[in-house]
Design a protein that fits this description.
With 265 residues, the chain is α+β, with helices and mostly antiparallel strands. It contains ten helices and four strands; from the N terminus they run ααββββαααααααα. The protein is globular. 35% of the residues are buried.
């Protein structure tokens, strides 16, 4: 099974699948569609790449209160992962705003046609840019961002589920979701999950499996402290323990990719 099949398995939008597979080609120079499908963590389902970063769905398993969102994962920065959109439509609006900011080209017939297929009003996006620019401060003017801005916007009224500082329910968090400043604070706190404090995840993972803590094992698997080769074996072990057929299919797809090229995370 290829990653395009995962879109169907997990019920992701058909438009996002067509963008991932380049059936719909976006006229945007700073993204790479049909990206390589290795070098990212198991929770990520890739949509496209920007420079060396992966943009994708962030789908947790065996965890309460962690709905799917969209993230940017930075392999060059220890795989730090940040929420950049709450849904695919938000991602498209933000990306086309950045396209307009990066280009002096006008809105032509080809662009109008592709945006119609995507369900975007490019003229409204252009008017927004002309008035406000592409800063996060005014995204609330788009209906799709009202009352559900992503964490990267930094608003005090953030109401999503992505980890947001040390007040987060840490038992539902993996380490790549936290920045270095927060990780430093965690070292001085009590009752912090062990996978958030260690750079050697393999023994922690198998101990969690032995205790039937599938959530903890999954979060350990998506935390720093793995060789990709060992993580590929671990995810199949978790699939066997879970007896979840959808997860098994995801695990099999992730484990057959050439993640070893990236060494460790």
């Amino acid at each position: 099974m290829e990653y395009s099949k995962i879109y169907d398995l997990l019920g992701f939008s058909s438009i996002s699948k067509q963008v991932f597979t380049s059936q719909i080609e976006l006229p945007i120079s700073f993204i790479e569609q049909s990206p390589q499908t290795y070098g990212f963590l198991p929770a990520l389902v890739p949509i496209w790449r920007e420079d060396n970063d992966f943009i994708g769905y962030w789908r947790h398993w065996f965890c309460e209160k962690r709905p799917t969102t969209i993230v940017q994962q930075h392999p060059e920065y220890n795989y730090e992962t940040e929420e950049i959109a709450r849904n695919f439509h938000q991602l498209l609006v933000d990306t086309f705003l950045r396209k307009i900011a990066a280009s002096e080209e006008g809105i032509n017939e080809s662009l109008l046609k592709i945006c119609k297929v995507l369900g975007l009003d490019i003229n409204a996006i252009k008017k927004h840019y002309d008035k406000y620019g592409d800063s996060f401060e005014n995204y609330q003017n788009f209906v799709c961002f009202q009352n559900q801005e992503p964490l990267i916007h930094g608003g005090a009224a953030y109401n999503g589920s992505f980890p947001n500082g040390i007040s987060t329910e840490l038992h539902n968090v993996c380490s790549v979701e936290l920045n270095d400043e927060i990780k430093a604070v965690l070292k001085n706190l009590d009752n912090v999950p062990i996978w958030l404090l260690s750079n050697d995840q393999e023994p922690i993972f198998y101990s969690l499996i032995e205790n039937n803590d599938l959530s903890g094992a999954w979060l350990s698997l998506n935390s720093n402290g793995w060789e990709f080769s060992a993580a590929k074996k671990a995810i199949m072990h978790l699939a066997n323990a879970s007896q979840d057929q959808k997860f098994r299919q995801l695990a099999q797809v992730w484990a057959t990719q050439e993640h070893e090229r990236y060494g460790e995370y």
